[in-house]
Amino acid sequence: MPQVGPRSLYFDVTGDLRTEKVKLPSCIKSSKTGALPNSQFYEVEDPVRRRVHTVSVTGGDQDHVESLRGFELLPPQVSFGVLQEGCTYIYSVLLKNVGIDSCRYKIKQPPPSTGLRVLYQPGPVAAGMNTVLDVEIFAVAVGVVGESGSGHVGHHVEIVTETDILYLPVTANILSNFVTPVTLAYKQALHH
């Protein structure tokens, strides 16, 4: 028997022996962080979907084969850093199909007030291949009172795939036209 300590999975919080296994959330079991299962697909489309019947998946249990489907975001989050108001910036993200068959996806565009837009080519992505998502931001200093200051933009871009719903966190700090990075650093140095 393995070494059993006070924080072992064999015991519950009261110190009693567990009667059943610890149930882990699906987001921990998955290699895709922040991904939620697309329940609508599993209820409506999955039962009538054509399956892959290649040698690599023959004989495997169906649960294992289903875990071999889906997308992965590289990088998993986008941070634009400090931007100048009135300029447009683009950051490229790879959406990689880590599954064994082709999959489709669609992106829910962020609201126009964020200044964000995702540029992409719609269509299926073959197994092992990737597609480029260009996250574009038109820098608008949201939340600035008066002529100068800095604003912050933060949004989770929703990517709906056949198997999962992925969220791509996007953040940016935007300086108004009257504040340059040099004057901002000078003001911060005065306060410290």
UniProtKB/TrEMBL annotation:
Gene Ontology BP term (one): axonemal central apparatus assembly
Pfam families xrefs: PapD-like
CC annotations in GO: axonemal central apparatus; extracellular region
Protein origin, superkingdom: Eukaryota
Name the record gives this protein: Sperm-associated antigen 17
Taxon lineage: Eukaryota, Metazoa, Cnidaria, Anthozoa, Hexacorallia
